[in-house]
Give the backbone structure.
Amino acid sequence: MNDFEQVISNLAKESGLPLAIDNKNSVTLEYDDIFITLQWRADFNDIFIFAPITDPEKISYLSEPVLRSALKLSFGGFGTSGNFLGIVDESLVLSTAIGLKDLNAEQLAEYIFSFANAAESVRVRIVNELQDVPETEENTSSVSPLGLSV
């Protein structure tokens, strides 16, 4: 049994959740309509944690205002609690990685809980920022170039 299997097995025992590792070396959990996947990356011996955070009921496509909001949040990791924000299959995805060395089930549970809260916060902040902005292709603003000098 590798470290990932061991920590997931221990987490399942301690939490009572029916956690099962799939053929992609991953486990998916649901938290407040957010699906969080934990995937073991053997090459790095870590757990890659990711979750789509685009709410399909409130954001039908990744418009410029949505992407601007996501970029604002992701700058320096300040609005994402240090997690990464990117685009995968036309959805905004929050992600992070944690090392497996000396990781126990309790620590993993804390990471998952913290990540879930960050994912929910990012989702809510993007939706709240867009409430007054209609999602249409016509609603695009031009980006002015930055004036740089030395």
